[in-house]
Design goal:
alpha+beta; DNA Binding (I), subunit A; 5-stranded mixed sheet; two-stranded antiparallel sheet; 5 helices; about 15% helix; about 20% strand; elongated; disordered C terminus
Length: about 200
């Protein structure tokens, strides 16, 4: 049961039904119980009804529904919440990670300009760590593995390389674009049709 309660399988919408985050079922039930959100009872892309916590606890559980056991019997786990008072779409910068560097650089080696397949590239520290470089947006680029290996602990000009452009942190974007449907929850799809490719971690 704890596994079900602690996976980020609940999409959070603002009052305007715009996706702004993800929560675990444990967090979702807490938000519902305190009146900060209502759950959506979803029976299709065009059949969605907000349901209060009290009414949600009485919903029938159908075969195939994700549910948790309680002293009063099984309770269906919500997949989408609507916040009661919040109506903005916050902006956020993608989390710094290798995947985000790939996305920022468009899958292109920043020394050769060649489009790379997933197994052909890795992340290069422009100023190598051995020479004081840091793992930051402005010091990491996507590079062809062979080029990166040849560069080693050298600076680009020492290795006869030139960057296509100076690496910088990506701009902040609406958090809706950062949400990834990690667990393939079908009920999220209608709200994430225009999302971007980065991941928002809970």
């Amino acid at each position: 049961m704890s596994d079900v309660l602690n996976k980020t399988t609940v999409l959070v919408l603002n009052r305007n039904w715009q996706a702004i985050g993800v929560k675990t079922p444990a967090e979702a039930f807490s938000m519902m119980a305190t009146g900060n959100a209502t759950a959506l009872k979803i029976s299709g892309d065009d059949d969605m009804t907000p349901v209060t916590f009290e009414d949600w606890m009485r919903l029938p559980v159908n075969p195939g529904d994700h549910c948790i056991g309680t002293v009063k019997g099984p309770v269906k786990v919500p997949t989408v919440l609507v916040l009661a008072r919040f109506d903005r779409v916050p902006k956020r910068r993608p989390k710094f990670c290798a995947k985000a560097i790939w996305e920022r650089d468009g899958g292109v080696c920043q020394y050769t300009g060649r489009k790379l397949k997933p197994n052909e590239g890795n992340i290069d520290h422009v100023i190598p760590i051995s020479r004081g470089g840091k793992s930051t947006w402005d010091n990491c680029v996507l590079a062809d593995k062979k080029v990166n290996s040849r560069k080693g602990s050298k600076l680009p000009d020492e290795a006869g390389l030139r960057l296509l452009r100076r690496p910088t942190a990506p701009r902040e974007v609406p958090v809706t674009q950062l949400i990834r449907n990690t667990y393939q929850v079908r009920d999220w799809e209608v709200f994430l049709q225009n999302k971007g490719a980065f991941e928002l971690t809970a």
